[in-house]
Design a protein that fits this description.
Elements lengths: L5 H16 L2 E5 L5 H10 L4 E5 L24 H12 L4 E5 L18 E4 L4 H14 L2 E5 L11 E5 L7 H12 L6 E5 L8 H7 L16 H18 L4
Parallel strand pairs: 1-2, 1-4, 2-3, 4-5, 5-7
Antiparallel strand pairs: 6-7
Helix pairs in contact: 2-3, 2-7
């Protein structure tokens, strides 16, 4: 019977669509990268989505975040994202967690019940904790590395974190994960050297991010590309697609 996912079924097959419908995926961070991850997973028919973020939509998010519009500025991102998911697929189950993930609240999340975890957050401490919790639960995880201050979306690659280069965030993650005995980790990263933001303009943007030492530049296409690549990896792994 014709439905909103009929065109996906032509590629994924009925068995693949059933796997996606029965899957539960947690996306930590629904900003520039994570928002596009959630968007693609919802449009792929993932049945249960956990979305975790404590930020509100800011005016400077409009240039790159799929949930950011003039009408959503000031609203909590998880609330807007939940509405969007249910507009796409009213049958989806959406668990919205309005909080930042950190080691001290890790126990609040059922990692053993997730089929997949997506790390789309910025804080290294939180990223490492996500990896450790997923590993402990035996749950698949994919992490986004740095997407700020970059211009070329074609430079993104999917790789094991220990085979990455250039990306400063990936370098930190390699060091920290090696010290914790983590043998492998799937990541999406870019070898493109980061650009230096225009300092006078960066100072203006800092008004919305006073706690940051520097505000990275971004655009509509780089974080979106990273997010869609991540979503494709999640979907392919869930349905068992082999290239």
């Amino acid at each position: 019977m014709l439905n909103e996912f009929s065109r996906s079924a032509l590629l994924f097959g009925e068995d693949g669509m059933e796997k996606l419908k029965n899957a539960r995926v947690a996306v930590f961070g629904v900003g520039g990268v994570g928002g596009y991850v959630v968007e693609a997973l919802a449009r792929s028919g993932v049945g249960t989505l956990d979305i975790i973020d404590n930020d509100t939509v800011a005016l400077t998010n409009i240039n790159r975040q799929i949930i950011a519009t003039q009408k959503t500025v000031g609203r909590y991102k998880v609330e807007v994202m939940k509405e969007r998911i249910l507009d796409i697929n009213p049958k989806a189950v959406v668990n919205a967690h309005q909080c930042f993930f950190m080691p001290d609240n890790a126990a609040d999340f059922p990692f053993d019940q997730y089929d997949y975890v997506v790390d789309a957050i910025d804080t290294v401490t939180a990223k490492i904790e996500l990896v450790m919790q997923a590993q402990k639960a035996g749950t698949k995880i994919i992490c986004s590395m740095g997407a700020g201050n970059k211009m070329n979306p074609a430079m993104f690659e999917v790789a094991d974190v220990y085979k990455t280069s250039v990306c400063p965030l990936a370098k930190v993650m390699r060091k920290e994960l090696k010290a914790r005995g983590v043998k492998k980790l799937k990541v999406v990263y870019s070898k493109e050297p980061a650009m230096k933001p225009e300092e006078n303009l960066a100072n203006n943007c800092k008004v919305e991010c006073p706690s940051r030492r520097s505000v990275p530049g971004s655009n509509a296409f780089v974080p979106a590309t990273a997010g869609l690549i991540i979503a494709s990896e999640v979907v392919k792994d869930i349905i068992g697609y082999e290239e």
